[in-house]
Design goal:
Elements: H1 10-30, H2 36-65, H3 69-78, H4 81-94, H5 101-108, H6 130-136
């Protein structure tokens, strides 16, 4: 029997979501006004930040299990901004405080400046209906566990 190889490792998932956010930032920057599609894109950023945070926690747990405490701590510090940014952005979305969105998006840019985007590869299905999906979630249980 051959071994099973998981190709969706945390690093690959994290990079995929980083690319998605970078593309959403570019697309949102080109929008002249806030419309339903822009709301979906903002919600997509929140959901992607959550996924990034999950992969960070998975990676940290694996390193701590191997007693790589210093490496895990450094990695944790490098990604500490993700849950806070996701929560701040989600508050803007839930409270309809869209006037705060540009400032938050600008604070995200430095975290994604290393991603070079020559061609936009994410299709509309990536962000379609994510605003509704996010609004249906209970904000109290999202970060538990």
């Amino acid at each position: 029997m051959s071994r099973v190889v998981n190709t969706n490792n945390p690093n690959k998932i994290r990079n995929h979501n980083r690319r998605t956010i970078a593309e959403m930032l570019q697309r949102l920057a080109r929008k002249p006004e806030l419309d339903d599609e822009a709301k979906d894109m903002a919600a997509t950023i929140v959901l992607s930040l959550r996924k990034i945070h999950e992969t960070v926690q998975t990676t940290i747990a694996a390193w701590e299990k191997r007693d790589y405490w210093m490496k895990a701590e450094r990695f944790s510090r490098d990604w500490l901004w993700t849950p806070k940014m996701a929560a701040d952005l989600e508050d803007v979305i839930r409270e309809d405080a869209w006037d705060l969105l540009p400032e938050l998006l600008m604070s995200l840019y430095p975290h994604f400046s290393d991603i070079q985007i020559k061609t936009l590869t994410r299709k509309e299905e990536t962000w379609a209906h994510n605003y509704i999906f996010l609004m249906k979630q209970d904000p109290q249980t999202i970060w538990e566990g």
